[in-house]
């Protein structure tokens, strides 16, 4: 399936699209939505082009259906419930049947295999277990390929390092911010890279830049693979990098991916950046059609040397709700990260603070410097600050204040990092 030709793949996708439209029509929500679009039966979907006739589904729609409004099967067939990890508002709820979980598990297993890992690997899963899909999602896929799974979950950093050493962990699943933080604890734990057998890390759950990936690979001497997913589309395993690490293959036999202009909803061609929209073609319990993810990325043009025919998604630039408008200029936190992570003296953590200064917005970027840099040489520190400031100004147009902080002094997150503190509404 991973190397299937377009024709065979599209034939399968059409069959699955009809199936999922049939599932969706079992819910009053989609009955009404689809009827308004002239779709009252799966037979109304004649080709994949008819996908465009289906209205988008938004996060608000899911919230309005909380908790069971989108359920398309009797609850007795539901074997698991997940919710999104959002900390504000009503969470979005996804129900899974046994069959839904089997599809998800296979996709995660496929993703792991695409990175060259397998049954000889020791897999330490540092993503939070529970309602958040990062933990259980990778867990079952890793077992499916026969990896030795260590279900650590998030947090407890020193113990994580000890376990990595004692069990000879070869593959990690972790957020990029936490991966950077863990590295800064190695010395304190008296563990060196030679004590570890680490080869790979799957990094996801939050936006991060290519330079952060490179930095992590260099610090840990490993290969880091970008892993993307969202609970509404199951969780991890929606798109994953293969051994070539050049964008994430979207498993197109199960997911229809579209990129749209976030204002007009118009389709954008491959290569153009916009909001990513997914349809899960194989979900029975909570069918979701044309779900607007709020994630911003482009579909990459061209084929991947690995031979997989599934199109690739570029690194996620950010979320439409994370976009900061600073004195009228639109900036994603990842643009700032990309600049600071290119500076060798920069350490493993940063924070972005937005405040009001009179009628204008002011931007402060707090940056940890790498250990060994604080030598008390103030002139050196000032030069570094100026350099970071100049680089930022050149990239994002806005001139920020730059603060340098000691290693380990900025807040650490075991789950998704919260990089931006927006105090502009504060009086
Ligand atoms: P959740 O549904 O709580 O698992 O959160 C899913 C969201 O996490 C996605 O919609 C993205 O915004 C973000 N996310 C997950 N993986 C990545 C990744 N590899 N790069 C950037 N953002 C990611
Ligand atoms: Zn590939």
Could you characterize what this model shows?
This protein has two domains: 1-319, ANL, N-terminal domain (Rossmann fold, 3-Layer(aba) Sandwich); 324-422, GMP Synthetase, Chain A, domain 3, CATH 3.30.300.30. It contains ten helices and 20 strands. It has helices at 6-24, 28-36, 59-64, 98-114, 133-144, 157-167, 176-185, 210-220, 333-340, 378-396; strands at 78-83, 93-97, 122-125, 148-150, 171-174, 200-204, 223-229, 236-241, 248-250, 255-260, 274-280, 291-297, 312-313, 318-319, 324-326, 329-331, 346-357, 360-369, 401-405, 420-422. The strands form five sheets. It has an eight-stranded mixed beta sheet. The protein has a four-stranded antiparallel beta sheet with strand order 10-11-12-14. The chain has a four-stranded mixed beta sheet with strand order 19-18-17-20. Bound molecules: adenosine monophosphate and zinc ion.
Helix amount: 25-40%
Main sheet: strands, sense, barrel = 8 strands, mixed
Rg from alpha-carbon coordinates: 22 Å
Beta content comes to 15-25%
Query: Which structural class should the secondary elements be placed in?
Result: alpha/beta
CATH class of the largest domain: Alpha Beta
| Secondary structure tally: strands | 20
Question: CATH homologous superfamily name of the largest domain?
Answer: ANL, N-terminal domain
Query: Uncertain spans, ≥5 residues at pLDDT below 50?
Result: none
The figure for the number of domains is: 2
Strand order within the widest sheet?
4-3-5-6-7-8-9-13
Shape: globular
CATH topology of the largest domain: Rossmann fold
Estimate the mean pLDDT confidence: 95
The helix count comes to 10
The hetero molecules present are: adenosine monophosphate, zinc ion
Q: Give the helices and strands as they follow along the chain.
A: HHHEEHEHEHEHEHEEEEEEEEEEHEEHEE
Cα separation of the termini: 57 Å
Query: Which architecture of the largest domain per CATH?
Result: 3-Layer(aba) Sandwich
């Amino acid at each position: 399936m991973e190397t299937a030709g377009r024709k065979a793949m599209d034939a399968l996708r059409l069959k699955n699209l009809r199936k999922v439209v049939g599932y969706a029509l079992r819910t009053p929500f989609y009955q009404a939505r689809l009827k308004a679009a002239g779709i009252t039966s799966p037979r109304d979907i004649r080709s994949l082009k008819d996908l465009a006739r289906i209205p988008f589904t938004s996060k608000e729609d899911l919230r309005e259906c909380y908790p069971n409004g989108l359920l398309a099967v009797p609850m007795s067939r539901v074997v698991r419930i997940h919710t999104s990890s959002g900390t504000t508002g009503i969470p979005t709820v996804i129900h899974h049947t046994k069959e839904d979980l089997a599809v998800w598990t296979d996709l995660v297993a496929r993703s792991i295999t695409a990175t060259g890992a397998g049954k000889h690997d020791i897999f330490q899963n540092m993503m939070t277990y529970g309602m958040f899909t990062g933990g259980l999602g990778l867990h079952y896929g890793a077992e499916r390929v026969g990896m030795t799974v260590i279900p650590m979950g998030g947090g407890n950093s020193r113990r994580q390092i000890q376990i990595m050493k004692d069990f000879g962990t070869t593959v990690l699943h972790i957020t990029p911010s936490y991966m950077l933080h863990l590295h800064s604890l190695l010395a304190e734990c008296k563990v060196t890279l030679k004590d570890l057998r680490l080869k790979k890390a799957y990094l996801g759950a939050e936006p991060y830049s290519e330079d952060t990936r490179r930095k992590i690979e260099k610090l840990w001497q490993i290969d880091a693979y970008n892993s993307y997913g969202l609970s509404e589309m199951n969780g991890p395993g929606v798109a994953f990098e293969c051994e070539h690490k050049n964008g994430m293959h979207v498993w197109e036999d199960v997911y229809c991916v579209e990129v749209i202009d976030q204002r007009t909803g118009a389709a954008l061609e491959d290569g153009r950046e916009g909001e990513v929209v997914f349809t899960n073609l194989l979900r029975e319990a909570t069918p979701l059609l044309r779900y607007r993810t709020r994630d911003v990325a482009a579909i990459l043009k061209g084929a991947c040397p690995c031979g997989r025919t599934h199109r690739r998604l570029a690194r996620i630039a950010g979320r439409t709700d994370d976009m900061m408008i600073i004195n009228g200029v639109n900036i994603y936190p990842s643009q700032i990260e990309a600049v600071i992570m290119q500076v060798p003296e920069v350490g493993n953590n940063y924070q972005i603070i937005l405040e009001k200064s009179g009628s204008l917005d002011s931007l402060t970027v707090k940056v940890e410097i790498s250990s060994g840099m604080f030598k008390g040489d103030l002139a050196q520190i000032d030069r570094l600050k100026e350099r970071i400031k100049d680089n930022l100004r050149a990239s994002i147009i806005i001139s920020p204040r730059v603060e340098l902080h000691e290693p380990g002094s900025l807040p650490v997150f075991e789950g998704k990092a919260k990089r931006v503190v927006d105090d502009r509404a504060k009086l």
